[in-house]
Specification:
The protein has 191 residues and is an alpha/beta fold. It has 7 helices and 9 strands, in the order βαβββαββαβαβααβα. It has helices at 21-31, 61-69, 88-96, 107-116, 130-140, 145-160, 174-189, and strands spanning 10-14, 35-37, 41-42, 57-58, 73-79, 82-87, 100-104, 121-126, 167-170. The N and C termini lie close together (11 Å).
Length: 191
């Protein structure tokens, strides 16, 4: 079956901040043909090295709220004081073209996707422990200790939601976690 003969599928990567979703996403995109990443919108400020339209579409709170009011997001959430959302149009276009779409979103957004698009495949990325996650957040060097404490508190709640996902990948070894993610995505191509 060619790509154009089938509709694409949504794969959702979710998990706590700092767990390695972005790194796993990048590896999946390089390992799997006809898999595209849906660039989310956010009101948070770019981190060092992030580019508008690549990692995120960086928008003002007002712009986000206007788009939200017009129903332009497939899912959206307020996380750590910022808005995040997946533009609906881009995802629908890619799926209609037969490409699978990878979303890297938070657990609030994943729950929305699970409800409105039940054929989506939800994959929870988990840290080996909260201690390891705390070290990763500190090594990132982008947040204060207060913000790290908030992210860890949120991570505890997010990890409790992992049972709602189709798959849980513990990101304790990047190569193994990447291979597992690639295998999951490819397994749906043969169905």
């Amino acid at each position: 079956m060619s790509v154009r003969e089938r509709k694409g599928r949504i794969f959702v990567l979710a998990g706590p901040s700092g767990v390695g979703k972005g790194t796993l996403r990048a590896r999946a995109l390089s390992n799997v043909e006809n898999l595209v990443y849906s660039v989310s919108c956010t009101t948070r400020k770019p981190r060092a090295g992030e580019r508008d339209g690549v990692e995120y579409h960086f928008v003002s709170a007002r712009e986000f709220e206007d788009e939200l009011e017009r129903g332009m997001f497939l899912e959206h959430a307020s996380v750590h004081g910022n808005y995040y959302g997946t533009p609906r149009k881009n995802v629908e276009q890619e799926m209609e073209a037969g490409r699978d779409v990878l979303l890297e979103i938070d657990v609030q957004g994943a729950e929305q996707i699970r409800r409105i698009l039940p054929d989506s495949v939800l994959i929870f990325i988990s840290p080996p422990s909260l201690e390891v996650l705390a070290n990763r957040l500190r090594e990132r060097g982008t947040e204060s200790e207060d913000k790290i404490a908030l992210r860890l508190e949120n991570a505890k709640k997010e990890i409790e939601q992992a049972v709602k996902y189709h798959y849980i990948i513990v990101n304790d070894d990047l190569s193994s976690a990447s291979d597992e993610l690639t295998s999951i995505i490819l397994s749906y191509r043969n169905r």
